[in-house]
């Protein structure tokens, strides 16, 4: 069973990447991003895509330029996440057939990103908008728009965010900090998945 959860592995190294990816998939998290300000991010993405690209959607975060999109695609990544809205990044992403998740905070940015072809929206920083801000935006966003809350959503607040209209979440330090062993990544990911399943009213299945 897949969940709308993106694991953000900021700071991971290529040597850690395959074991971390396996731990996340086993726990039930199958969307994984390596921010490009991590050590050798393209090597990590390539290693994970080669090993688990058939079982997980793997890609990059903190993607700020169209040239970076091409580099991620060459490494085997299929997910492009940004902290901001950039029409050129979205266009390059969609041209290559990858998923595009730009960061937005306002309705103006949200509609611009959707017009540019975004797959879904990353509400960022989620702590600034809060569930109340998302609820207000939901009143005007097109039906079916996917919105993931990132930077402010946590397992203990999943239910509140879901009630406000969040479709999913991006989790950083809740599931990974640099140097965290794969066994602890697995434990953190399992807790996150169980919290999501409770909040979403789903049976807990790995």
TrEMBL record:
* Descriptive protein name: 2-dehydro-3-deoxy-6-phosphogalactonate aldolase
Q: Which PANTHER family match?
A: 2-DEHYDRO-3-DEOXY-6-PHOSPHOGALACTONATE ALDOLASE-RELATED, 2-KETO-3-DEOXY-6-PHOSPHOGLUCONATE ALDOLASE
* InterPro entries for this protein: Aldlse_KDPG_KHG, Aldolase_TIM
User: Which SUPFAM superfamilies does the UniProt entry name for this protein?
Assistant: Aldolase (SSF51569)
Task: Please name the Gene3D superfamilies in this protein's record.
Answer: Aldolase class I
Protein origin, superkingdom: Bacteria
Tell me the enzyme class.
Answer: lyase
Give the classification, highest ranks.
Bacteria, Pseudomonadati, Pseudomonadota, Alphaproteobacteria, Rhodobacterales
Q: Which UniProt keywords apply?
A: Carbohydrate metabolism, Lyase
The EC designation for this entry is: 4.1.2.21
- Self-association and partners: Homotrimer.
Q: Which organism is it from?
A: Jannaschia rubra
């Amino acid at each position: 069973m897949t969940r709308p959860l993106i694991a953000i592995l900021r700071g991971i190294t290529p040597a850690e990447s395959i074991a971390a990816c396996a731990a996340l998939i086993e726990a039930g998290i199958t969307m994984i991003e390596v921010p490009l300000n991590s050590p050798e991010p393209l090597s990590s993405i390539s290693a994970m895509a080669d090993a688990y690209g058939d079982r997980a959607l793997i890609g990059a975060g903190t993607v700020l330029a169209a040239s970076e999109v091409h580099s991620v695609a060459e490494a085997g990544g299929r997910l492009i996440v940004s902290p901001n809205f950039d029409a050129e990044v979205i266009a390059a992403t969609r041209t290559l057939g990858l998923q595009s998740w730009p960061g937005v905070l306002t309705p103006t940015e949200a509609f611009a990103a959707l017009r540019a072809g975004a797959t879904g929206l990353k509400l960022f920083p989620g702590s600034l908008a809060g569930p109340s801000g998302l609820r207000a935006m939901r009143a005007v966003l097109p039906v079916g728009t996917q919105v993931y809350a990132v930077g402010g959503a946590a397992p203990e607040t999943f239910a509140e965010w879901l009630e406000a209209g969040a479709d999913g979440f991006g989790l950083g330090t809740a599931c990974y900090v640099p140097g965290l062993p794969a066994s602890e990544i697995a434990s953190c990911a399992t807790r996150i998945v169980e919290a999501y399943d409770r909040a979403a009213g789903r049976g807990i299945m790995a």
